What does this fold into?
Amino acid sequence: MKTRLLELLEENCKYTSQDLAVMLDTSIETVEALIKELEAEQVICGYKTLINWDKMEETEHVTALIEVKVTPQRGDGFDKVAKRIYMFKEVEAVYLMSGGFDLTVIVKGKNIKEVAMFVGQKLAPLESVLSTGTHFVLKRYKDHGVIFEQPKKDERMVVSP
Amino acid sequence: MSADREDKIKDKIATKVATMPPSGIRKFFDIVSEMGDAISLGVGEPDFDTPWHVREEAIYSLEQGKTVYSANAGMLPLRQEISRYMKRRFDLLYNPTNQILVTVGGSEGIDISLRSLLNGGEEVLIPEPSFVAYMPCTVFAGGIPVPIATKSENEFKLTAKELEEAITDKSKILIFPYPNNPTGAIMEEKELKEIAEVIKKHDLIVLSDEIYAELTYGVRHVSIASIKGMYERTVILSGLSKAYAMTGWRIGYALGPASIIGAMTKMHQYVLMCAPTTSQYGAIAALKNGDDDIKHMREAYDTRRKLMINGFRNMGLSCFEPKGAFYVFPSIKETGLNSLEFCEKLLQEEKVAVVPGDAFGKSGDGYIRCSYAYSIDELKEALIRIEKFVKKLL
It folds into this structure.
């Protein structure tokens, strides 16, 4: 039931405990206890809203995906340098990668200049960072499984056998 | 054309077509269409889009210019995939070379199986409530439809006793529509065995419409063809419409004894030549790599199903637990209205469209069919409105 509960919450975190109880065929108390447990275990790490910022003209946002090559440190591997990077508030996400580079760092800023300043003054100068390659996001088509800009219209006949 | 001339032409329409009443669904469709902004729970098809990998494969086949007729019975690779699928999912063996026919939707299968089997005046047993096409297709094929009313207290399953009582010396075919549209009823192995005894005793042929076979909840579907002694007298009619959300592709299939499939293929080749080639390419992709898609959709339907049963029971309507398809079939007898009155009033007062149960046979009166092939938000809004309406009546 845990998996199904998580799937439902991932789909829409606004489902009420009451709805979830019905959909999972269990009691409200069980649902609430399970959610508390999953939160405590940090399986559920937070509830955020998926926003298409591109549509908000008064607020400017840029996102960059930065490929970072680093020197792993003895004893700590990549974890220590990853932490030094992810602690910056500008950093949205950090992933350790297989392949041609080591870390993917996703950075958000108000404009290109702000992101460039972050890379030039904070990220690149870190001792273990060997090189960075910055790619700016031009357009978001789909995020977290949701396709943007695609109004879903029900084209089925209203009544059919 | 002048009205006079139009009347003369009208006289030339074949009697069995002219006298066939229009489907109750059609009548209700017209009423709902005029409303415009109603929430409809009237749809008999999935709300999911066909999985992208299926659509992508069909697009690729078009790009490659694969747009010619296929073999009459369907492309051999598709028949082979159907054969593997039946073995994998239902443990039934069908030979792709002579026991499988790819039809234009499950509907074509219903039509040509009846026409391939019936001589004038032979009787076709049809459990009701059930899909709207069985009765007309039987009549068009020259057969005589014999409805068998299934009952709510039996969870709308067909019982051996009901079947036995409906059989005459003219009975030839039993249409076996489980998992059932509109009731959501299913038949489990034990019940199938009881029915099978009667079928064998009277030497009937079974047309088992298993289009909803993938959509059962909590129990796996068991085909009547897998019951001892039934394989050789059963034609399975199914398709990809409901399981893979592919209604508009029109791909169905018929599986059964080589002689019957051969006769159906003969008819199919004269009438339709072959199922749409592009759709057949899509179907191959669906059957090859679509098991996960089905699982995902089945889980989503199951979640909504629970929401619906709970919703109707909370508003004081009795609603047996449907274990198949994507419909709930609550009783509205408590309200004192008949099905059509209930549906029309609900539509006018709360703008929710559900289908009157008697559109699926007389025994469906006193019930309504609500599809849950809709988003959770739409279902919740519809339930709130129906509850408001029912509260006024109870």
In short: DSSP finds five helices and six strands in chain A.
